[in-house]
Amino acid sequence: MNLAGAQLTENELMRLTVSNIAQATSLPALIQEHGRWCCQRCGDRKPVQLPDGRFYCSACVSLGRLTNRDLLYRFEQPHRPVGDGLLTWHGTLTPAQQKASTALQTSVTAGADHLIWAVTGAGKTEMLFPTISQMVQQGKRVAIVSPRIDVIRELAPRLRTAFATTPIAVRYGGHFDQTDSDLLLATVHQLLRFHRAFDLIVVDEVDAFPMAGTPMLHRAVQGARRGPVVYLTATPDRPLKAAMRKGLMVSRLFRRFHGHPLPVPAIRLMNFKKLPSQLPPAIVKWVRDVVATGRSCLLFVPKISWAPQIAALVQRNGLRVAGVASTDRLRAEKITAFRQRQIQVLVTTTILERGVTVPKCAVGVVAAADRAFTASALVQIAGRAGRAADSADDPVVFFTDRYTLALLAAKRQIVMMNGR
Asked: Domain check: are 273 and 162 in the same one?
């Protein structure tokens, strides 16, 4: 396994059966700066003391505990290119996509960061292809990361088709691909295992949880970069908009690749006093009606515990239904079955607000006034509908017992983007 640019613990080296660490630089995992402990892997400055007197970093403990008595090993030797970077995607960019793609290449060539602000379904991934191809053909390393596992799972087959002759390493929690590659596809957390390793980092869905509000993940990107960073989102947050005002290069696309407008959500008021033990008949009828049109249906709920309960209620109507949440060990299998239309209705939490593209798919949000559904989450959720040109008018309905600012803001933002 090529370890160039890697930043690993002793336990990780043992798991990878790496015996020769002569080329690695060892350094204390935690150091003291101005009287405070600082983690050298994630940069967190709030380590916790253990009963035996050691300090450990709780911020990045999900990657393995690091204490002030442990070492980190950084492999700083030059990277040996292994991919040809040839683009085997045979699609054609629209004029708007081509303009954004060209602007992106110009920024990356100049070493400048860039934001692609594009509506859901605009084809952001395809716009990256020429830049990725150019970088890998030049022997440079590229990482495409996202805070969401499901985004990575969605992108993996698309990238492997687009770069069929280039090895691609895919890594996320519970899946550590040891393929030697110039192209890494991973969750953002995985970048904590690298130091100054990538000539280009692409952060997809940069405003999504858990990256939003988690400085450690932003530090992970900064620590792993040695070149520009490209951000992708349909709903830039305040920090990104502030960066735009300070000069961050940006390409805007407010039209989907097929040219149709975004489906505008309908807001339907109803009584939710008996949720989740009973589902209002109007919602059940709406689900039956959209499935009868040959569409799949994503039904979003605000709480993990509601997913199986409401799935069971919908299933009583003779439909093929499943509930899925972040805690579901069969999550990947259920999502695959939904994509393959073995499941007609998938009841889900916001874990699938991004990263799932299913043609002919209606979208409903139950209890849409719940605080789990922020304005940006609702925009992303609505964006799951209308992804195919022959079904661009897939219905989107926010079922709610009251109006909220988030509901109104989400609808207003979608209408605004359609008008640009």
From this structure: no
Q: Among 253, 274, 308, which residue terminates a domain?
A: 253
Alpha-carbon gap, residue 368 to 360, rounded angstroms: 22
Could you give the CA distance from residue 56 to residue 101 in angstroms, rounded to a whole number?
A: 44
User: How many structural domains compose the chain?
Assistant: 3
Q: Are residues 70 and 176 in the same domain?
A: no
Closest Cα partner for 386 from 282, 205, 259, 234? Answer: 259
Does residue 329 sit within a domain?
yes
**Cα dihedral: 287, 288, 290, 292 (round 10):** 160
Q: What is the mean pLDDT of the chain?
A: 95
Do 106 and 29 lie in one domain? The reply is no
Among the listed residues 275, 139, 117, 251, the one whose alpha carbon sits nearest the alpha carbon of residue 200: 139
Give residue 341's domain range: 266-419
Nearest alpha-carbon partner for 206 in 195, 226, 193, 222: 222
CATH of the domain at 159: 3.40.50.300
Query: Do 113 and 104 meet the contact criterion of CB atoms below 8 Å apart?
Result: no
Evaluate whether 83 touches 182 at the Cβ level (below 8 Å). yes
Place of tokens 């109104």: 408
Domain membership flag for residue 83: no
User: Among all chains, which residue has been given the structure tokens 């860039």?
Assistant: 114
Is 415 within the bounds of a domain? yes
Does residue 80 sit within a domain? no
Residue 92 tokens read as 């054609």
- pLDDT tens digit string along 6-60? 999 999 998 888 777 888 999 999 999 988 999 999 999 999 999 999 999 999 9
The model's confidence at residue 120, banded by pLDDT at 50, 70 and 90, is very high
Nearest one of 83, 63, 76, 175 to 136, comparing CA atoms: 83
Query: Are residues 38 and 108 located together in one domain of the fold?
Result: no
- Residues 319-338 have pLDDT tens digits of 999 999 999 999 999 999 99
For residue 268, give both structure tokens: 């339907």
How many Å separate Cα 218 from the centre of its chain?
14
Return the HEC string of 31-66: EEECCEEEECCCCCCCCEECCCCCEECCCCHHHCCC
Residue 217 host element (H or E): helix 215-224
Q: Which long-range contacts (CB under 8 A, 24 or more apart) does 31-37 make?
A: 37/68
Q: Are residues 135 and 187 in the same domain?
A: yes
389 has a pLDDT exceeding 80: yes
